[in-house]
Amino acid sequence: EVLPPPCFDWSCNGYTSSVQFIGDNENVVAWINGTRKSENFKMDGFISQTLDKICHAFCEGEMRPRTRAAPWATHVRRKFNKMADLLATCAIKCKNNYVFVNEFKPCGRARFIQAFFDGGFRGDVAGAGVFLRVAWFMNGSQPEWHSVFRASFLIDVEGHSNSACAELFSFQMAALAVMSFLENNCVLMEGDMVAKDVWPELKLYDGLT
């Protein structure tokens, strides 16, 4: 069962999309939000590179945090990040990239976007998972969510030799997916990706499709 995350407060601001990144690694989320400093110089550069793109989108009025006082990223327990965790596991177990894009009808610019991310490193294989859902309208006090994008990424272990590096890579992929969606009303991907009909036929991944 893929559990929904806890309810979060959201606020609207004209045509600017409210964005929330969600991960289950407390250290990585703290690094992203700037509340804790990484002791790894390479990781600091990786984080800054991604945050620069997010800040540029913020300055252009394309995206903002879910509320005025909220940070960009939110830490949740793993059970509330189950889809991204499954996707990362899929990449590691199957040693391949998988992408599934839901069919949907955009209703103008998305008002709310949530990007779940997770990464893992096992043995000599690293993988990342990204799950994107968006909302155009409110349903009562909460956004009416629609799943639009799920992806498993096999990671080059030379540059990502531990789980924290894999988590940061998944955050970067989540940020790129969000910005692609904001620009195109869909997520455009490049590289060695495969479609839904070749998802691995394994019971572990029943919740993916």
Comma- or semicolon-separated keywords:
27% strand, disordered C terminus, alpha/beta
Q: Count of helices?
A: 4
Largest beta sheet, briefly? 7 strands, mixed
Q: Note the run of SSEs as H and E.
A: EHHEEHEEEEH
Rough shape? Answer: globular
Tally the beta strands: 7
Structural class: alpha/beta
| Average pLDDT figure | 82
Low-pLDDT runs of 5+ residues are 191-209
Report the portion of residues in β strands: 25-35%
Taking all Cα atoms into account, the compactness measure Rg is 16 Å
User: Span from first to last CA?
Assistant: 13 Å
Oligomer status: single chain
Binned, the helix content reads 25-40%
Q: Could you explain how this protein is built, in words?
A:
With 209 residues, the chain is an alpha/beta fold. It has 4 helices and 7 strands; from the N terminus they run βααββαββββα. Strands 1, 2, 3, 4, 5, 6 and 7 form a 7-stranded mixed sheet that branches. α2 runs parallel beside α4.
Task: Please outline what is shown here.
The protein has 209 residues and is of the alpha/beta class.
Give the topology:
Elements: E1 17-23, H1 26-33, H2 41-59, E2 63-65, E3 73-75, H3 82-94, E4 98-101, E5 112-122, E6 125-139, E7 142-155, H4 163-184
Parallel strand pairs: 1-2, 1-3, 1-5
Antiparallel strand pairs: 4-7, 5-6, 6-7
Helix pairs in contact: 2-4
